[in-house]
Specification:
Blueprint lengths: L1 H26 L3 H7 L3 H10 L1 H18 L2 H23 L4 H27 L5 H20 L4 H20 L1 H26 L18 H18 L3 H32 L4 H13 L1 H17 L1 H4 L5
Helix pairs in contact: 1-2, 1-3, 1-4, 3-4, 3-5, 3-9, 4-5, 5-6, 5-9, 6-9, 7-8, 10-11, 10-13, 11-13, 12-13
Length: 317
């Protein structure tokens, strides 16, 4: 009985916190962004300490109360977009999964949830996600033309800037699926980090995530990148827009994975050869800021997913 009362009390408190965070997310401009991203935290804690039944009850309660106080559709979108992340993390922590498995499963759940959230927006409004922002960008550029003219830019330079802006805008439109992917990863990473801190405070065991120098992504990303290069050529040569859009996003996903893996290899090399951390970080920043340096890091990382340099060179066992 005491356990049930404790679960009920804690569920009520955490549901209340969830409602407050939802209200902050919708009405406080800057703090609201952080509140949205950390909205799954209360359900993570509740699921680990009392089980999925109480976590689901708190989510439903928070949705109903938020819908009554704010707006039903906003409450639904918030729950669909962020609750799966919290539930996946909570299940992983409660079942004592490894840090890698928890993060991987939660990231997958978060990406699917973000896609569903955007799809709900499309169903309710008939407007494609981010369409409004993309339409405003050319208008904002034209408004800034007067500023460029006052800075002494010639008409030819302004026209070149307009062409470059148009090309970049097309690329942004192509990479919108990657935005969903990045949103899912960032949301998971933030809640994984914050959830671990919170659970340790309550005395709950938290799996240790591997050191960054030991990260090794799947060789899938190397093959994904290689396939995307072929797909981009084929889609462009045969004028297949849908194929081109898909493989451009695949290429970007492979590039990001290669960059992360490449930086991990670099840090492992710096640790093995005992480079001074300050100088190693300066060199890494210079490489990342250089176009050719970034490409070297990306390809190094992608090849490492296949060949595992650190094991072959004896940097790690």
């Amino acid at each position: 009985m005491a356990t049930r009362v404790s679960s009920l009390t804690e569920s009520g408190i955490l549901a209340g916190i969830t409602v407050v965070m939802a209200i902050v997310a919708m009405y406080v401009p800057l703090l609201g962004i952080l509140a949205v991203l950390l909205w799954p935290l209360p359900m993570i804690l509740l699921l680990v300490r009392h089980g999925i039944k109480w976590a689901l009850m708190s989510v439903v309660t928070a949705i109903v109360v938020t819908a009554a106080l704010v707006e039903p559709m906003a409450s639904l979108r918030l729950a669909v977009s962020f609750a799966p992340t919290g539930l996946a993390l909570g299940i992983g922590y409660r079942n004592r999964w490894s840090g890698v498995k928890i993060f991987s499963v939660a990231t997958f759940a978060s990406i699917i949830a973000k896609g569903l959230g955007l799809y709900i927006v499309f169903l309710l409004t008939g407007i494609e996600p981010f369409a409004g922002q993309l339409e405003l960008m050319p208008q904002q550029f034209e408004q800034s033309v007067a500023m460029y003219q006052s800075m002494g830019m010639s008409p030819e330079q302004i026209e070149e800037a307009r062409r470059n802006f148009s090309e970049n805008l097309k690329m942004i439109a192509l990479l919108l699926p990657m935005v969903v992917l990045i949103m899912g990863i960032l949301d998971t990473a933030l809640n994984f980090w914050a959830g671990g801190i919170l659970l340790r405070r309550f005395g709950e065991p938290v799996p240790v995530f591997p050191k960054f120098t030991e990260w090794r992504l799947s060789s899938f990303f190397a093959y994904l990148y290689a396939f995307s290069i072929l797909g981009m050529y084929w889609g462009n040569a045969h004028d297949i827009p849908l194929l081109y859009k898909i493989v451009v996003n695949m290429n970007m996903a492979g590039t990001v994975a290669g960059l992360v893996q490449g930086v991990s290899v670099f840090q492992a090399a710096a640790a093995h050869y005992r480079w001074k951390s300050f100088m190693a970080n300066i060199l890494l920043i210079l490489l990342v800021l250089s176009g050719i340096g970034t490409q070297i890091i990306v390809f190094t990382g992608l090849f490492d997913t296949v060949f595992d340099y650190r094991r072959r060179l004896g940097w790690q066992k």
